[in-house]
From TrEMBL:
One of its GO terms (molecular function) is hexosyltransferase activity. Residues 4-131 form the Glycosyltransferase 2-like domain. Keywords: Transferase. The keyword Transport does not apply. This is Glycosyltransferase. It comes from the Bacteria.
Amino acid sequence: MKISIITVCYQSGATLRQAIESVLSQQDADIEYIVVDGGSTDGTVAMLEGYGASISKWVSEPDKGIYDAMNKGLLMATGDLVGFLHADDLLAHPRIIAQMAQAADDLKADVVYGDLVYVQKENPHQVVRYWRSCAFEPKLLKRGWMPPHPTVYVRRHLYDTMGLFDLRFRIAADYDLMLRLFRAPGLKTVYLPQVMVRMRVGGASNRSLKNIIRKSKEDYQALRKNHVGGIVALMVKNLSKVGQFFKR
C-alpha cells in the first residue's frame, strides 16, 4: 500500500527540515512524499533541491493560501491513502506510518486517524495539550467532534466524490472537509489509539484573538453548510478543547 504524505509550507525553513526528516525516517512504509511550497525566499527551495529524489515531488510557486496549496498536493498524490504533515509538525515515531497503513489494510478502512499532541514551539518533546480522539459514531458530529486533521489518512478516491478543500473558508476548510468526509454513507473508519503527530502550538487558527473569532464563525458556517448542527455543536466543540490540557 502506497501512502502519500503532503507537506505545505511558506517561509518555514526553521522547522521544515525536521518535518521532512520525520517523514524520511519512516520504516517499512511505501511513501510518496510531496512538498508544496508557496514561493518561499528563506532558503526552502535550496533545502528541497538538496534532498534530491528523497522527496518524490515538490513545487515552489505562489498560491492562494494554505488550503489552495493542500489542494495542489492532493492533485499531485497517487497513493492509496493520503495525509498531511504540516511544516511545523513531526510524525510521532519512525513506524507510525507503517502501523497506520497496516491498520487500514487489515480492516479495509476508508479513513484512519489517531491522537495528536500539541508541543512547545522550541521544544517538540514538551507536551502542552493532548488531543485524544475516539472511535467514530455519526452522532458525534452534532457534538462538534472531529478527529485531529493532521492524523487523518483518507483513500484518495474519496476526494473524487467529496471534493477538495473549499477555498471560501480561510481557517476552517479542514473542519468543513472533515464534516463532508465523515457524513459519507457507508464510510469505514479506523481509530488508531496512539499519538501519530506532534504539532507545534501557534497555528493560524489560534495565533490571535481575531483569528480565534474568525475560526469560530467559520466553524459555525461549516456546521450549517453540512447540515450537522449549529451554535450548540459549536459550543461543545470549543469547550471540549479544555480537557486537552489535562488528558495524558
